[in-house]
Please model this.
Amino acid sequence: MSATSLSKVERKQILQIIENLKNEGESLGRRHRRRPVQQVMWLKRLPRPERPRSAAFRVHTEDVSLKGMGFLTRRRLQENEYVVAPLQFREGGGMLVLCLVRFCRQLPEGGYRVGTEFEETLADPTGTTRIPQGWLKKAWSAEITTS
Model:
């Protein structure tokens, strides 16, 4: 599976966005302010009883907050489904981010707008860290809601 590699400048920008979000607090009635982030990345869909193989798919990120991210995709995801975002930094290292799908809305022009909530992170210094068994068990036992 291909992972997104961020340059030092991109990494610094994302860290600055996160720091600004911490400092700005609430706005627009949302729990956390969103910042636009236009990036193509690959996510990994975790296996489920009805779909025992995990699959990677491409998304176009739209926004990020302290607690989650929104993206566009051609795949229909289910509410309460888990996906993993593997982030790799060009200067080395990275992390795996476990995300819970909060909504998946079909768009009139095709595709879906998905909102996720960050649940856990795991350092991935070599880009070879496997998805933990605990994450796989959590995904396997998640109660999927049809949206």
Q: What stands out?
A: The beta strands are 4-6, 35-45, 55-64, 68-73, 82-89, 94-106, 112-123. Confidence is low (pLDDT under 50) at residues 24-29. Residues 4-141 form a domain with the Pnp Oxidase; Chain A fold (CATH 2.30.110).
